[in-house]
Amino acid sequence: MQRSSTARYVCNQILRNQTHTKTSLRQRPPCDVFINHRGIDTKRNVAGLLYDHLRWLGFRPFLDSKNMKPGDKLFDNINVAIHKCKIGVAVFSPQYCDSYFCLHELALMMECKKKVIPVFCDVKPSELRVKDDGICSTKDLDKFQLALEEAKHTVGLTFDTLRGPFLDSKNMKPGDKLFDNINVAIHKCKIGVAVFSPQYCDSYFCLHELALMMECKKRVIPIFCDVKPSELRVKDDGICPTKDLDRFQLALEEAKHTVGLTFDTLRGDWPELLDSASDAVIKNLHEVEKEKYFLKKKKKINYYN
User: Fold this and answer.
1) Tens of pLDDT, residues 252-266
2) What residue stretches are annotated with the TIR domain (predicted)?
3) Which of 124, 239, 273, 286 holds its CA 20 to 30 A away from the CA of 93?
């Protein structure tokens, strides 16, 4: 389980662009970083994680759902935040250009000569186009087009939510209890996929999840990514109870002796890996359903006998 590397990288860019990072809280404006995003696409992943990470770093980011309450005037609050911010982050996504507010915010940031860091999430710059819906004025359309072109020609980041490290963030939100949500998900799932990596065994959560899947008798498909099965070892850090260490060791040995997939991120073919992993998941799901069917049938026969 990892915090998103993309969120960390964006934060590093913001730190680089900040000219007065040591300014006292009393002197700092109400908003350091304005996060421009399309809520339905990125509020629960990139934008939400970035907001939380910036807060953790001690900045004052602005995210509409976090900084405004029912009854607040949208334009008033957003416009003030943009004028007072130092840095802007524009998270572009497939439905970004469908939103008047997204384009208005972007155009205002550009007009205010703010530094804007673009993040292209699940969308290519060339796919972003301002649409004339017949309602927006020509003046606004021109403003939006200019701002969009400026952003598309600014060095930024690209991110694919299907292949990126946003996994827990898809099903959990800040404040959720890790163990409660993860344990319920494991108990209710049909198939598990364990993606082993060089630092996998450094994580208590990873080993806990693996052990629980094995204890629940779930089918687990191992993927050994940049690591050999023989290189995976449970480490005694002196903090973990002996009972847990034994559980983790048993689960790890069982996974290492299960037929799985191997992948080298430097030389491997990502589409091929995704195809192989998907095929393995589908095959195992069919087998689980078949087992459930025959078990149900057997119980029914025993009942009538």
Assistant:
1) 999 999 999 999 988
2) 29-186
3) 273
